[in-house]
Queue: 2 jobs
Job 1
Amino acid sequence: MAKDKPTEKPGIQPENEKTEALQLHTTDANGELMTTDHGVRINDDQNSLKAGERGATLLEDFILREKITHFDHERIPERVVHARGSGAHGVFKLYKSLDKVTKAAFLNDTETETPVFVRFSTVAGSKGSTDLARDVRGFAVKFYTQQGNFDLVGNNMPIFFIQDAMKFPDLVHAVKPEPDNEMPQAASAHDTFWDFISLMPESTHMVMWLMSDRAIPRSLRMMEGFGVHTFRFINRNGEACFVKFHWKPLLGVHSVAWDEAQNISGKDPDFHRRDLWEAIDSGAFPEWELGVQIVPEADEFKFEFDLLDPTKLIPEELVPVQRIGKMTLNRNPDNFFAETEQVAFHVGHIVPGIDFTNDPLMQGRLFSYTDTQLIRLGGPNFHEIPINRPVVPVHNNQRDGFMRQTINKGKTSYGPNSLGNNAPQQVKAADGGFTSYQERIDAKKVRARSKSFFDHFSQATLFFNSQSDPEKKHLVDALSFELGKVKTVAIRQRMVGILSLVDEGLATEVAFALGLKVPAKPQQPINHSIPADGDPGNYQPLKVEGKLNKSAALSMAGTLKDTIKTRKIAILAADGVDAKTLNTVKSAILAEGGVVQVIAPKLGVVVAADKSEVAVDESFLTAASVLYDAVYVPGGLKSIATLEAEANAIHFLNEAFKHCKAIAADDQAKQVLESTYFSKKLPKDFSDETVFKEGIVIGADAAKLAKQFIKAIAQHRFWDREKKRQVPA
Ligand code: HDE
């Protein structure tokens, strides 16, 4: 794996070929005069034109009319799914050439830096909904390659709910707010979602991922990405292989606790968007390695699942992920609407060397993405919007339409032609002209599902078995929460039946929380996705015993835990704080790339015991422990006395404990911890080992304490603490 090192000086957001091209369309009003849209200088932008000072406004006021009309038309439809998103520019650099398997130029040349634009999103919520909803995250990357745009429109989970595009509108209708009362917003915890899921056994595997901590990431920068479908690579000789795409974050894969997620949704619904923006702004550029799993064409039928089935992943134990390059996000957009909102991704944007497979979900997507842009962006010229333009020239005979920008010269807009030198010319494959993979097809036209898609449970079980104990507990809790919000008992009961086919213990625990019983004999669920004339017997889901019992890559427990880069650490302080211990710990954290904020009873400064002033970043009124990764209480008798009496400080610590975060305190500050609910649970003597296990560091030597604290923060969370579930924060 590549070493995690900063690419540029903090604060500098480098340009690339694409961001430079965007400058042509970028404007800055700084120091400029105000004009109408037609360039006429405006003398008064405060008052409309009236018949007398107290008279009616005149229709002839073109300045008012223009301003109001533009305002009236500012909104465009939000995306029907993935409406809430955050974007960033960056670059992709290849580690090693893949020229043996693909002729895609950006995957051949290790010298090229390919500009990218990435948009992360939640799926179900509206544009203004909370970032911390329990949901799948979209992970869409547009590569502006020298052969045209390649879009990898993926998610942070490697599989999907359904196997056929035909069911997508049903899935989305079920998860979106219910149609009679438009509730709940950005949540799957309601009857229609679970009604659908409980009748669609093929969704079981994905539901396990959705109920796992993957659905509540700590940061967009700390989640994996997946292309989901099996794609094809094609090499220069026209030979094909199968490929699955992965993104592996260099900060590791981390989540928050569900209780925390719900609190963040209130305290800062823009939590993920802000986190991404601030990291890039401060020069801590997020990085992912691009991974590929390559399967030779001859091995298509080697697996116990079908490579074309999007509800299945290829376990990394069977086909390892090769890390082939790195993406660095190093520039925030200048304008949210122009870039993040207007960017148009499409699974069908591929370049020579990459091709589709017959995955029926992918095939449906190939239609949907252009279609949706036509309504969302208002016509067929959305490829001309600056963020969507490739960095290579575009020439063809497509013409006109709403909002056409390009001025095509000449008489001909058809081919062949003799009046315009038969331009633009077609391109030979050897010169980079796209040719489709010549897959052999000899089949009857049928509406059917392949039997090889019918095992809906073995990978759901594999996922569950691969989780650590805390992750399993979170799954039980998430299912109990979600189904607990379902009003119809029959739906809950059906889900318990489905869960019993995944894992008996899981079903028993969820059933207990719901006050239900697990069916004595696991019942095969009925597959309701059958054609009207279909024989239900032919559509029975299969319970196949998977050969693999566990796959380490499916758990987040073994993720990277060697850095505190960009983690946010709160220092609680009041007047009289010991500036020396505070600054020692602060400097040590900053040196490791962490972010530190001082939180005090009021804004301004706290006057330290040595009369120096310490700037306050947030007051207890505006800060909350759920917005930080760890908390430290420095020494200073007066400060400690104030904090001990400050209910918000105690609540801050209780909550940090409840959410399993690293907590540190100067020896003197022990008495603040003694006012918390968890004081009784603290081990008496702290050795390094206890610190590591418990995540609580107390010490008189600030330098030593800082070292241990940093080690604890890097662990991210001490989930074992949840066993002592007695903190009423
Ligand atoms: Fe999408 N999806 N999707 N999807 N999808 C859209 O396109 C669709 C699916 C994904 O940040 C829409 O431009 C169908 C899988 C992302 O702009 C729409 C099916 C995966 C984004 C659409 C799927 C995705 C979208 C809505 C089933 C992971 C956000 C707005 C056949 C591999 C892109 C838009 C962005 C967006 C259709 C299933 C990922 C309606 C029909 C599987 C990341 O076209």
Job 2
Amino acid sequence: LQNKYAQELDLPAETMDGKRIHLYLNAGLLSSLASEIANGADGVGLYRTEIPFMLHQRFPSESEQVKVYQQVLEAASDRPVVMRTLDVGGDKPLSYFPINEENPFLGWRGIRLSLDHPELFLVQLRAMIQAGDEKEQLHILLPMVSNLEEIDQAIAYLEQAYNELKNDVNKNIVKPKLGIMLEVPALLYQLAEVARRVDFVSVGSNDLTQYLLAVDRNNPRVSTLYDCYHPGILRALKRARFDCWQYNLPVSVCGELAGEPIGVILLVAMGYDQLSMNQGSLARINYLLRRVSHSDLSELLQMALTLTSGQEVRELVREYFESRE
Ligand code: PEP
Ligand code: MG
């Protein structure tokens, strides 16, 4: 079956009625990135820098980081790469930086930690900018943002890092585009203000679901409650897409939902046209998109939005798949 999907990987992901969907990779390890990119991805939609940090015994130095980030950008040839600043805390521990909290998912994680440790944050930003060099390939993404002040502070650090490097190292160096993860629900209601500050957003549906439903994304006891197809989640995603369009803010989705066939159908129907997923989903999603029409999906979404549970939504989309086989 994988073979059947893989045969079409070279063809662009485009619906039967001509809507082009850009498919990107989620990555963290370098080993196979080059071949994964060559295999039909439009770029890297989420590079999780906490993964190389976890492979070290201490915080990697600026030059060590530059090397890793350069390799990522090279592996991507000239395609865009969205590099996320350190997202430790929550479910992502760093052995050499232990954090003990009662509610780690509501605690010190992502951008909160970076802003409390500017010496670490500035090193990471400097390393990214240097790796990006004079090309426009690199985009920087901030995780776990929960208010506008955090964005403003991060922008100030990015400016500082960029100005230092421009003056001391290379005056032609490019300032990367900046985006934030949309994964804390309150920000869904501040997209107008977000759009005035950043160049793009990326919906982290894993954490967004966890926080909208108040269900731990990793706790097996409540795993049946962790439902990305909960009608409330779907409405939030639809509203986010609409607001981003309204405020001219480019938006992608990089949570697991963007690599699941049912999720992709619903997201594309909402108007999302940039999806970032694990390498294992890429061929299948490309294959699927080439066999649906956007107008059919819009009708399906209208129906899905009248349903009352995630279970019903899944059944509806499965029936649609079966009717087409
Ligand atoms: C997300 O939260 O959806 C996401 C992509 O980030 P992570 O899974 O790394 O928390
Ligand atoms: Mg997340």
